[in-house]
Amino acid sequence: MDGQGIIDSNSAVEAAKAFAAEVIAPNATAWELNRALPREFFAQAGARGLCGLLVPTEKGGAGLGVLAIAHVMEALASADMAAAFALVVHNNLASNIAINGSAALQDANLPGMVDGSRIGAFLLTEPQSGSDAAGIKMAARQDGQDWVLNGEKAWVTNGVVADVLSVYAQTNPDAGARGIACFLVDRDTPGVEPGPAYQMLGGHAMGVNGITFADARLPAGAHFIPAGKGFRAALAGIDTARAVLAAMNCGMLRAGLEVAIEAAGGRHAFGKALTDFQGIQWTLAEVATELEAARQLAFNAARLLDGGEDGSLAAAHAKKFATRTAFARLSDCMQVMGAWGVTHDYPLARHLACAKLAQYMDGTSEIQNVVIARKLLG
Predict the structure, then answer these.
(1) How far is 321 from 315, CA to CA, in rounded Å?
(2) Residue 270 Cα to chain centre, angstroms
(3) Which residue from 53, 40, 57 is spatially nearest to 13, judged by alpha carbons?
(4) Is 225 in contact with 181 (CB distance < 8 Å)?
């Protein structure tokens, strides 16, 4: 299936399931241990139509909605959430360029992004400003027709391998959030200095690093989204991101439950299979119940967003509950398996690390509580 082949959600989900089984699952442990996601991963994903999922069909993508993307990413994350999240970031930027980019920016970036030969990254967070996205200090000043960037970005997913960087910068500090603009920057631009991959608890397939900009000079055409619209654009897809991330955590937990059932069924103690013990049965039943609840929250939020409704509350509930549930219940699945659960012979340790990381992505659990409390209190 080529990049033009996915035209409906069912074929996209089937492509994701096959890609997860044939490409991600056999390589995920090696990617984690090597602290890298190879560039060819994106080319392989692009060949199966998984790099332009949100790009309109008339521009070479699949043109899918939120619910379809949630199902696709649930399937991919069941093999490795870090690899799936790398694709989410790439797909989101491709969609943003398709919607907001000039004809020149689209021509220069979209074909390669859809086929996976050109990798995208989103640069908003800075070392001193995480949840306070409006407080960024990256400076953009105009010099004739050019723009010059100075500053540092942190926690850049795909930063280790990305070709095109979507950089949010402050053009007028006195204007606050209204002064934030976005620029599309080529990785090879002089003054752009990617740092090494972060050494984290897990999730290394995301290729997360920091990137500094020292008098990085950009042509006028790199001005992607102007001040006054940049900050709104940065946050425009946050509800979608939260719903999709919730679904990804469900994918990990479903995989963990399946592995735990199979592993426990094959082990014996005191003359019985572990799954014959009521304590094991009830633990697995609790996991199944909370997984079902998390999936309902995630896909309900996605359906609301697809329908054009305000899905911010539903997405906040889904993201908070799914990430919390995945972390707690994957630990239970590991406990059912005994010490084998922590080995790299099984994916549970990798999933558990990603579930913890997910609690910080697209707004921490505390930020979700802020969103929920504001809705509750008017």
Answers:
(1) 10
(2) 44
(3) 53
(4) yes
Q: Which fold has domain 9-118?
A: Butyryl-Coa Dehydrogenase, subunit A; domain 1 (1.10.540)
Instruction: Determine the Cα–Cα distance for residues 96 and 40; give it in Å rounded to an integer.
Output: 23
What is the DSSP annotation of 59-74? GTS----HHHHHHHHH
236 burial type by CB count under 10 A (0-12 exposed, 13-18 middle, 19+ buried): middle
- Alpha helical stretches, state H, 266-347: 278-306, 312-336
Q: Which two tokens stand for residue 346?
A: 């099984």
Amino acid at 49: G
Q: Which fold has domain 237-377?
A: Butyryl-CoA Dehydrogenase, subunit A; domain 3 (1.20.140)
CA pair distance 243, 344, nearest whole angstrom: 29
**Domain positions in the chain:** 9-118, 123-227, 237-377
Encoded tokens for 4: 């033009």
Cα(181)–Cα(136) distance, integer angstroms: 11
CATH architecture of the domain with residue range 123-227? Beta Barrel (2.40)
Query: pLDDT tens string for the chain (378 positions)?
Result: 344 445 578 899 999 999 999 999 999 999 988 777 899 999 999 999 999 999 999 999 999 999 999 999 999 999 999 999 999 999 999 999 999 999 999 999 999 999 999 999 999 999 987 667 778 999 999 999 999 999 999 999 999 999 999 999 999 999 998 999 999 999 999 999 999 999 999 999 999 999 999 999 999 999 999 998 988 888 888 999 999 999 999 999 999 999 999 988 777 778 777 887 888 999 999 999 999 999 999 999 999 999 999 999 999 999 999 999 999 999 999 999 988 888 888 999 999 999 999 999 999 999 999 999 999 998
Neighbours of 10 (CB within 10 A): 11
Q: pTM score, two decimals?
A: 0.93
Q: Computed from CA positions of residues 10, 13, 17, 22, in that sequence, does the dihedral angle turn out positive or negative?
A: positive
The CA distance from 367 to 321, in Å, is: 13
CB 119 within 8 A of CB 195: no
